[in-house]
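Interim report to the steering committee. The following record documents the input for DedA family protein (199 residues).
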Amino acid sequence: MTEFILNLIAWGGYIGIFLLMALENIVPPVPSEVIMGLGGMAVARGDMGLVPLVAWGTAGSVAGNYFWYWLGRNIGYERFRPFIAKHGRWLTLEWRDVERLHAFFLKRGIWVVFVFRFMPTFRTVISLPAGMTCMPLWKFLLWTAAGTAIWNTVLAYAGIAMGAHFRQLDRYVGPVAVAIMAVIVIGYVWRVLTWKPKG
């Protein structure tokens, strides 16, 4: 994975960073930690500037998140109801659960979008309900960009600080990601087996 990212960065420069970060938010297995960390290494070598790196990385993240926002907005809140009625068992959700989540997001959505930008996986998923609750686009873009810019800056500085040792992170990112996914799958299966609708 590291070599692929390095080659794309070398080939595409800032555009490569933009494309990788956009892809990371559409297909989560591409890790932003490694992308921006390697970008930070490029800054340390003098091949890139920190400000344009963060700017292009943030723009890519916002573009990828907008895809999920757009999808949620086009699906809509009420159009989700038949889907819940038919597949609620597999989602372990009833419509009343969706209504509670909807009400909470309408009240606290801005802060949720901002805070979740610092959480793996959830930073992408949260864009879907933002679109479904019709959060104003300018607010979604503003708070997504704000949270993402902070996170990307931290990652870039980590790459600068760790220098060549950042490559070693790739050895751990894969196994850790697999372990996290295994825990999520096991937890989901357990929830499906033990879930009983209240309605």
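The radius of gyration is 19 Å. The committee is asked to note this result when reviewing the revised timeline.
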